[in-house]
Structure formats: structure tokens, C-alpha cells
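cron nightly-structures :: item 1 of 1
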Amino acid sequence: MKGISPLVAAVLLIAATMSIAGILAYWASSFVRSSLPSESNRTDVECAGSNFNIYTASYNTTTKNFTLMLENTGMYDVKIEKIDFIYADLTVEPHNLSGVLTVGGAINRFVVSDVTANYQKYRVVSNCPQLVVER
């Protein structure tokens, strides 16, 4: 009885190796995809645990400066992006801010210059879409 030819043996070994490699690649990609959290999931968790309060707010009619004191009351840092001033005719005057409210109860001061007087209310907007404080 004769053995299989070297050519057939080489083809069978290559086929078996490629099949095992394909199975391992599929398993590894699905394992990594399911076990690592995506960036959006991390952001959603951080936003759910974030909160801030307006400690004080004041407007100086002489300098047209609006001073805002904010306190982080959540579990994560919050990035404050802008403050919108809303007027009686529903026009909105946006002012960009850049600051991070860190966890730990520290109160951060923001000064917005050149604010038009007679605003009806203001809205503080953070990097989390659902975390907006309006007064």
C-alpha cells in the first residue's frame, strides 16, 4: 500500500492551516468587538453621571460683563462649551466658552464680555447634549 503523494499532502496541510486561521480570525474579531466598549458608550456613561449647578450669576451694566460661577455636582468632569443669551423677541446671542468643571466641588468662574443688556434668560451648554442648564 502506497502513501499519499507529497503534493496532495502539502495541499491538505495548507487547506487545514488556512481553515484554522480563518476560524481564529473570526473569533478574535468578534471577541474584541464585543468586549471593548466603544467611545460613544463611554461618552454616554460619562454624560449620564455628569451634572453641574449655577452657583451665582451676575451682570454688570457698566462693563457689559456677565459673570457666572458653576459647580460640578456629578461624578465626571464636564466641559462647558457656550452660553446663550435669549431675548424677548426669541433671538439668541451665543458666546463660546472653554472650560472644564472638574469633579470635587470646586467652583469655576466664567466671565463673558460684550453681552447685550435686557436678556430674558440664559442657557449654559455643555459637551453632553442632555446637560443644559437654563435660567
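cron nightly-structures :: done
The longest strand covers residues 92-101.
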